């Protein structure tokens, strides 16, 4: 009987731990309609903008990018999905965005990841000086068309 009680207690601990981990990750319930999904997008944007000073401090980005440029990058990424009208897809995109924001704030990425993905990758900073010194027109056209 003691073994049974121990296994029941063990099972209860695992059952109690599962909902806590889901809350910790921040899995939102599905949006009921497009209006609620839109509100959640604005809440996400607000949360992301409020975390910009922390991100700037963690990754020491003051010499590379301004907070307003990061805000513009976040809004541009949200606008890239403005055509989506299905609330379930919007919830999925919000989950991915929250996961990315959590990884960045928790310092799960390195400085060059942030710079490459959100500063240089978005075209805010372009260092074309050394690449444009190629000898052929082909290479110059290649570098301008495939700059990342």
UniProtKB/TrEMBL annotation:
Membrane topology reported for the UniProt record: Peripheral membrane protein
InterPro entries reported in the protein's UniProt record: Complex1_LYR_NDUFA6_LYRM6, NADH_Ub_cplx-1_asu_su-6
Primary location class: mitochondrion
Keyword Nucleus: no
Protein family per UniProt: Belongs to the complex I LYR family.
UniProt-listed PANTHER family: NADH DEHYDROGENASE [UBIQUINONE] 1 ALPHA SUBCOMPLEX SUBUNIT 6, NADH-UBIQUINONE OXIDOREDUCTASE B14 SUBUNIT
Protein name: NADH dehydrogenase [ubiquinone] 1 alpha subcomplex subunit 6
Organism: Brassica napus
């Amino acid at each position: 009987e003691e073994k049974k009680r121990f296994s029941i207690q063990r099972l209860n601990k695992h059952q109690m731990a599962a909902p806590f981990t889901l809350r910790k990750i921040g899995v939102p319930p599905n949006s009921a309609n497009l209006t609620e999904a839109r509100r959640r997008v604005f809440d996400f944007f607000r949360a992301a903008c409020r975390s910009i000073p922390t991100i700037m401090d963690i990754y020491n980005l003051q010499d590379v990018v301004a907070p307003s440029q990061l805000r513009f990058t976040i809004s541009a990424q949200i606008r890239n999905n403005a055509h989506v009208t299905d609330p379930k897809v919007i919830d999925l995109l919000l989950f991915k965005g929250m996961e990315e924001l959590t990884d960045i704030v928790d310092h799960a990425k390195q400085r060059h990841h942030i710079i490459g993905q959100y500063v240089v990758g978005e075209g805010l900073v372009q260092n074309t000086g050394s690449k444009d010194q190629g000898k052929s027109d082909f290479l110059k056209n290649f570098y301008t068309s495939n700059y990342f």
